[in-house]
Design brief:
This protein is mostly beta strands. The chain has one domain: predicted glycosyltransferase like domains (Thrombin, subunit H, Beta Barrel). The chain is about 5% helix and about 40% strand. Strand 1 and strand 2 form a beta hairpin.
Length: about 130
């Protein structure tokens, strides 16, 4: 039996583990790109759209991304569009459960509102 992997590695996002989110098999997504819009109630504009956003890890429960915005934090609501080749899945919603800001980029752990792993578009993006 294959050992299950964590979708957000502790060395990627250096925060406390959330055991409930660490039970799913992780997929390392190669060439999947993400477009992210975050709704941050504490900001004047209310919405943040990073210009650059890269998918690092992906699972049925959530996604880890690197982006160029330091204004997104834990608890913010997000909407994601995932793109890979000719496949696109729009309006995946969720919330930021982890955020780590560095000088170069922000690492985010996002928990999906719904599981999308069995959706045909999601499977196509993963190349299955």
């Amino acid at each position: 039996m294959q050992k299950r992997k964590h979708y957000l590695r502790p060395d990627l996002i250096q925060v406390e583990e959330r055991p409930d989110l660490r039970r799913s098999v992780r997929v390392v997504p190669g060439s999947i790109s993400a477009r992210l819009t975050a709704t941050a109630p504490s900001l004047p504009n209310k919405q943040v759209q990073p210009k650059d956003c890269h998918c690092v890890d992906l699972s049925e429960h959530g996604i880890a991304v690197l982006c160029d915005s330091d204004r997104i934090s834990s608890g913010d609501r997000v909407s994601l569009d995932l793109l890979q080749g000719g496949h696109r899945m729009d309006n995946l919603t969720g919330s930021v459960v982890r955020a780590e800001v560095s000088q170069q980029h922000t690492r985010l752990g996002i928990e999906f509102d719904h599981q999308h792993f069995t959706h045909p578009l999601f499977q196509a993006i993963l190349g299955r």
